[in-house]
């Protein structure tokens, strides 16, 4: 069986959602009104992200120094990656955030090359510009619909493990073969009776997979 692990980035691989941290410092309290609309299902993340990032601006060098200082990853993620690679399974990151945040983090923690899909953040004339490079088929909610990505991999015959924590993970979980959920995503799965396993960190996931799925 070919196993593919699809993982969210912000708040799942990172200990805190880097976008939330950024917005709390530079766009507080205005961005909370937008987040409230998203939480109540009144606005998709595709529209919300652009609105939130129109509330403030940081030049690229300051943005990068914010990432270097603030981003921290789950303390067990690195050993999880090693475990996955040893088992011959694949890991792909699906993010509703920005490629820049992911590439900087992979570099900072020396995680090597990893395939990821995310949105593009541009710094243009004193404003952020967000480019949705992977528009979802039919999904008007997300900037980078993870369900679309998941289905593309599923067609290739993978058994799909999905790991996430929040709103951009709502679309894909119903299609995954095995779901690890925490925080907002756990509540979402529970309310909609989508089977999931609760986790706190990547060590929990590693333990579960080594006993139940990647046993050899
Ligand atoms: Mg997240
Ligand atoms: Zn979607």
From TrEMBL:
InterPro entries: HAD-like_hydrolase_phosphatase, HAD-like_sf, HAD_hydro_PyrdxlP_Pase-like, HAD_sf
Pfam families: HAD
Single GO molecular function: phosphatase activity
Source domain of life: Bacteria
Keywords: Hydrolase
Gene3D superfamilies in UniProt: 3.90.1470.20, HAD superfamily/HAD-like (3.40.50.1000)
Entries under NCBIfam families matching the protein: DKMTPPase-SF, HAD-SF-IB
Protein name, as recorded: 2-hydroxy-3-keto-5-methylthiopentenyl-1-phosphate phosphatase
Organism: Candidatus Aquitaenariimonas noxiae
